[in-house]
Design a protein that fits this description.
It is built from five helices and two strands. The protein is mainly alpha-helical and 139 residues long. The protein has a two-stranded antiparallel ribbon with strand order 1-2. The chain starts with a helix and ends with a helix. 19% of the residues are buried. Bound molecules: zinc ion (2 copies). One zinc ion binds at residues 98, 100-101, 103, 128-129, 131-132.
């Protein structure tokens, strides 16, 4: 095995460890309030057994870590959690620009909140910067 591959494997292993830690810490809440729980659990199991096999999995690993670090999302109930795919899709659609003030956006907001029956569909999602998102939820 080449040196670079060893290096990459070590890098992956520490990321997988981080993912597992984050997942285990939030397991109960995720199971109760996150509809993508089984998708995530499957991915964690796969990583633990087989490691990272390709670029696609590497990307998914980063996305899930990001997702777990954000869980539960600010300004929403745990039920409003999106999968990394839904989140990226909403962000991409608005070109990562806050729909209220035009600055770079970093959060996704449900137009009709999940508590009022709003869904994680793209027509119910908008992207906001942190400041505008806080303002909207304080109203
Ligand atoms: Zn804004
Ligand atoms: Zn919101």
């Amino acid at each position: 095995m080449k040196k670079t591959n060893v290096k990459r494997t070590i890098q992956y292993n520490s990321k997988i460890q981080l993912l597992t830690q984050l997942f285990n810490k939030r397991k109960t809440e995720l199971l109760a309030g996150y509809q993508g729980y089984h998708e995530l659990k499957g991915f964690v199991d796969e990583c633990e057994h087989w490691g990272i096999m390709d670029r696609g999995q590497e990307k998914a690993l980063d996305e899930w870590i990001d997702f777990l670090n954000r869980w539960p999302f600010t300004g929403g109930t745990s039920k409003s959690a999106l999968t990394p795919y839904q989140r990226n899709k909403a962000m991409g659609k608005q070109q990562f620009i806050c729909t209220m003030c035009g600055r770079p956006a970093d959060e996704v907001h449900h137009i009709i909140s999940r508590s009022k029956g709003g869904l994680n569909t793209s027509d119910n999602l908008t992207v906001l910067c942190r400041e505008c998102h806080e303002k909207i939820h304080k109203k």
